[in-house]
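Supplementary Note 3. Input sequence used for the single-chain structure prediction.
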Amino acid sequence: MMMDTVADFLSRIRNANLVYKEYVDAPYSKVNEAIARILKEEGFIKDYEIIEVPFERTKNPENKKKLIRVHLKYGPNRERVINEIKRISKPGRRVYVGVEDIPLVKAGLGVAILSTNKGIIPGYKARKLGVGGEVLCYVW
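The predicted structure, written as discrete structure tokens, is reproduced below.
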């Protein structure tokens, strides 16, 4: 049983990025989809899609599981667009910030992804909306 699906999702992206994979598949969740949406909006990935594949541990072909497929992005000379992706708030230690404490990642070159009462949004949008929340990860 997986305890931290967000950490698993970020680790899969990090590992695939290190070996220049074209895409990576991860178990689907609404939080993972929201993080992928933000990564696409910020230009860190090409695209993402939700796919359904047959569930291998059953004989019934009707049973399917959802996966999120993230298409990674690289620069012209195989430069990585995602230099680092780091999980901040973990199940053992949750990290919450107020609107005045939302961090700037790499002096604004990166993005902090927050879970707020307005949804999962980037740090600069949370500052603009005047809301704080749980810091999920940093990407730069």
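Strands lie at 23-27, 45-54, 64-72, 85-87, 96-97, 111-116, 119-122, 133-139. The helical segments are 5-18, 30-41, 123-129.
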